[in-house]
């Protein structure tokens, strides 16, 4: 069940399990002003996973041996994570994740959205995004 809230909602925001995606993302983006937060994007990980793992290591002030980094890269590959029940949500209770409708991890192809929505739908999404994300510097890459 997904509960969305907005300014007209009769349910106080602090009483719901989920909020609008825009509110969630903007809230965490704004927190970067006061807290050290590292933002990573799927497309960047698809482009160069090792570089992105190294960003995490640098952010955490850690240094790993090359063998450890190689094991991390292996286990973080999309194919490995898709088969791992601890990362593909197969272990999640059915009331949280409906596995029969669509698997949590689909294809792992950056930019595949172009095969599923029309140009007109993309234009509507972009207009909605620009309106709701106005005032932020947050930009999401959509392809590699």
From TrEMBL:
Its EC number(s): 2.8.2.-
Q: Cite the GO molecular-function annotations of the record.
A: sulfotransferase activity
PANTHER family tied to this protein = SULFOTRANSFERASE SULT (PTHR11783)
UniProt-listed InterPro entries: P-loop_NTPase, Sulfotransferase_dom
Protein name, UniProt field: Sulfotransferase
**Gene3D superfamilies given in the database record:** P-loop containing nucleotide triphosphate hydrolases
- The organism encoding this protein is Alligator sinensis (Chinese alligator)
Identify which top EC class this enzyme belongs to. Answer: transferase
The entry assigns this protein to a family as follows: Belongs to the sulfotransferase 1 family.
Give residue ranges for domain Sulfotransferase. Answer: 14-136
Tell me the gene name. LOC112550908
Pfam families in alphabetical order: Sulfotransfer_1
Keyword annotations for this protein, in alphabetical order, are: Transferase
Domain of life, per the record? Eukaryota
């Amino acid at each position: 069940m997904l509960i969305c809230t907005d300014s007209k909602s009769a349910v106080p925001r602090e009483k719901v399990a989920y909020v609008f995606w825009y509110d969630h993302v903007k809230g965490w983006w704004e927190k970067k002003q006061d807290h050290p937060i590292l933002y990573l994007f799927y497309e960047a990980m698809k482009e160069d996973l090792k570089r992105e793992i190294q960003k995490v290591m640098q952010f955490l002030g850690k240094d790993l041996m090359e063998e450890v980094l190689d094991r991390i890269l292996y286990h973080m590959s999309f194919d490995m994570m898709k088969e791992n029940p601890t990362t593909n949500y197969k272990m999640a209770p059915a009331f949280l994740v409906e596995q029969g409708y669509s698997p949590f991890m689909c294809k792992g192809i950056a930019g595949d959205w172009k095969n599923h929505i029309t140009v007109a739908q993309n234009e509507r999404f972009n207009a909605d995004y620009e309106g709701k994300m106005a005032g932020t510097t947050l930009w999401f890459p959509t392809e590699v």
